[in-house]
């Protein structure tokens, strides 16, 4: 019985220092922006779990159905005794849908939210005693590497939830190409990708009636306060999410309700009434469009699964 999580504190320093630097760079830019990766402090990770349960947020539910239905086919493609690496493992919930069918020998969860990562991988190790569980606290958008000692094994990189949508297409392609470099021969990528669809369905998913997505967006301001001491009232901002059809993406912004100044030690940043802080892009693809991107990144799109309404897709990309 093997229930300890092997923890790799890989890129701790980078993960910690980059928040302040990124905030200053983002507030100095025109238009002002902050990377969506900073949503995921502990509170943000919990709010995201709650978003996934909102009736309007079809992504999670749909992907889970696809994974359950396809789990045997996925397992057949991957083969047993692989290393299963989950990028942005969060609550490590989706992976449970695949473990029994896939029977990997090792699991590595990588996440930017340290406490959350530890809690969820500990639960995973307790629930699957046959699985060797590893956890790496890392910002994989900055640097991608597998910890020493487990690199080299045939790997499936699992990147669920359409998190790839946070990269704009050229960056998504570059990220997949970099990922390919760290995967040994015979490996593959199992990736969830949200599909282009009716504007009303998309916009409802990012403007849930319970206001959880708004709270998730506004939590970024609370994080500015908690971690950087910025005096900022979340009530002075509105949540804004809409579909930018020309760019095939949902955009999220925080809109300043008044003239106000965000004060950091390094500088003061004035916001006009109505000025936006761009907090997220969530890019949507057609199946063919994503397969073409994967090919340009050096992969062979081997299989794709979708739901009857074509809301979401899961792709298996071979090296
Ligand atoms: C985790 C990036 C896939 O874009 O749908 C959910 C994040 N933002 N609601 C998404 C998110 C607002 C989510 N991803």
Give average pLDDT, whole number. Answer: 93
Which stretches are low in confidence, meaning pLDDT under 50 for 5 or more residues running?
none
Query: Given the C-alpha coordinates, what overall shape results?
Result: globular
What is the helix fraction of residues, given as a range? 25-40%
What strand order characterises the main sheet? 1-5-4-3-6-7-14-13
Distinct bound molecules? N,N,N-trimethyl-histidine
Could you give the order of the helices and strands? Answer: EHEHHEHEHEEHEHHEEEEEHEE
**Biggest sheet statistics:** 8 strands, mixed
Structural class: alpha/beta
**If helices are DSSP runs of H or I spanning 4 or more residues, what is the number of helices?**
9
Pfam families: Methyltransf_33
InterPro entries: EgtD, EgtD_Methyltrsf_superfamily, MeTrfase_dom, MeTrfase_EgtD-like, SAM-dependent_MTases_sf
GO biological process, one term: methylation
Keywords: Methyltransferase, Transferase
């Amino acid at each position: 019985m093997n229930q300890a999580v092997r923890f790799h504190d890989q890129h701790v320093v980078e993960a910690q220092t980059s928040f302040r630097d990124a905030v200053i760079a983002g507030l100095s830019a025109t238009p002002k922006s902050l990377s969506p990766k900073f949503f995921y402090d502990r509170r943000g990770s919990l709010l995201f779990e709650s978003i996934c349960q909102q009736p309007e947020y079809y992504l999670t539910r749909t992907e889970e159905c696809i994974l359950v239905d396809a789990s045997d086919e996925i397992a057949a493609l991957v083969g047993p005794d692989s290393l299963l690496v989950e990028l942005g493992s969060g609550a490590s919930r989706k992976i449970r849908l695949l473990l029994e069918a896939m029977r990997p020998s090792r699991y590595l969860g990588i996440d930017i939210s340290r406490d959350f990562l530890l809690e969820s991988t500990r639960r995973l190790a307790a629930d699957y005693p046959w699985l060797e569980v590893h956890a790496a606290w890392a910002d994989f958008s900055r640097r991608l590497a597998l910890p020493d000692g487990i690199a080299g094994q045939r790997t499936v990189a699992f990147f669920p939830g359409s998190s790839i949508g946070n990269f704009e297409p050229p960056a998504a392609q570059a990220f997949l190409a970099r990922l390919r470099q760290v995967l040994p021969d015979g490996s593959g990528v199992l990736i969830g990708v949200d599909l282009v669809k009716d504007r009303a369905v998309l916009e409802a998913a990012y403007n849930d009636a319970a206001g959880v997505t708004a709270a998730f967006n506004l939590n970024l301001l609370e994080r500015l306060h908690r971690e950087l001491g910025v005096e900022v009232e979340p009530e002075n901002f509105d949540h804004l999410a809409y579909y930018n059809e020309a760019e095939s993406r949902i955009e999220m912004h925080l809109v300043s309700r008044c003239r106000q100044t965000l004060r950091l030690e390094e500088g003061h940043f004035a916001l006009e009434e109505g000025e936006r802080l761009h907090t997220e892009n969530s890019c949507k693809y057609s199946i063919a469009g994503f397969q073409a991107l994967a090919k340009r990144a050096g992969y062979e799109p081997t299989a794709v699964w979708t739901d009857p309404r074509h809301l979401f897709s899961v792709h298996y990309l071979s090296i």
